Amino acid sequence: MKKISVVTPCYNEAENIEPFHTAITHAFSSLPYELEIVYVNDGSSDTSEERIRALSLRDPRVKYIFFAKNAGQQAATSAGLVHASGDAVMMMDVDLQHPPHLIPDFIERWEEGNEVVFGIRRARSDDSPLRGITSKIAATIIALGEGWRLPRDTSDFSIMDRSVVQAFKKLPPRAVMTRFQVARAARAYAFIPFDVPPRTIGESKYTYKKLLTLLWKSTFGKSLGTLPRYEIKETNIV
Ligand code: UDP
Ligand code: MG
Predict the structure, then answer these.
(1) Is 68 exposed, middle or buried (0-12, 13-18, 19+ CB in 10 A)?
(2) Of 5, 56, 105, 139, which cross-links 36 as Cys (Cβ 3.0–4.6 Å)?
(3) pLDDT (tens digit, 9 = 90+) per residue, 183-192?
(4) Atom of ligand 1 nearest to the CA of 12
């Protein structure tokens, strides 16, 4: 049976971990795939770590990577990809804004032979107008800086083949954002448009400061040498 890894970055998401786990395991219960879930705790200051560790004792499909300190979502997804072992790897936010009911569609498109399938954000229901405009401007500048390799509203919600993961690992770091590195590692990609549901638990972890830092690093990171770096303090992946 083929194995699928679901990689999820977590930053102060203690209340989201259990609902996410339930939703993912439920979605896979009727699918003919072995499952692994890689929780990457990005230096949370809440009880995310304890929650993930407790889950791992209950469910052997739970793998975890704990960062020594907050290194950012891009570092977290990148670390998760490097350590995932599935025939395909999915990336999903832990706040359920990447709807688990779409998992079968992503898998189907991958099984059709697409090396990478990216979700495209169709509408976001929870943005304040200012936040919405700021995110769009940031996404436009980042996409432009990457030569429109991917459409502006491409999200991290994605699935990729093991061959792409292997190529990703060998690729010299060129982009701060994981999805652009993934895009470089693949020859072709497919897209699935989806509506982003509102976050029901907790708040967005993207403060304006974080958004601007990401923008700055994605634009100048290559020359400044500020590509994602992280320190792993604990993992159960052998
Ligand atoms: N995240 C992370 N490190 C950070 C910020 C966010 O690992 O420094 C994670 C977060 O826990 C979530 C995902 O990245 O699983 C997306 O973050 P968020 O939902 O806050 O972003 P938004 O959906 O508002 O763009
Ligand atoms: Mg979110």
Answers:
(1) exposed
(2) 5
(3) 999 999 999 9
(4) 11
**Backbone torsions φ then ψ of 5, nearest 5 degrees:** -100, 135
Residues shown for the chain: 238
Q: How far apart are CA 125 and CA 142, in angstroms?
A: 22
Residue with tokens 């499909």: 61
Gap from CA of 171 to ligand 1 centroid (Å): 25
Read off the pLDDT of residues 31-60 as tens digits, 9 standing for 90 and up.
999 999 999 999 999 999 999 999 999 999
pLDDT digits (tens, 9 = 90+) for 15-29: 999 999 999 999 999
| 8 Å CB contact between 119 and 155 | yes
Say if ligand 1 is within 6 A of residue 73 CB: yes
Q: Shortest CA distance to 215 belongs to which of 144, 149, 124, 123?
A: 144
Taking the centre of ligand 2 as the mean of its atom positions, its distance from the CA of residue 51, in whole angstroms, is 19
72 lines ligand 1 (CB under 6 A): yes
> How many Å apart are CA 233 and CA 117, to the nearest integer?
31
> Ligand 2 centroid to 82 CA: how many Å?
22
Q: Residue 3: what pLDDT?
A: 98
- Non-local (6+) Cβ contacts of 207 within 8 A are none
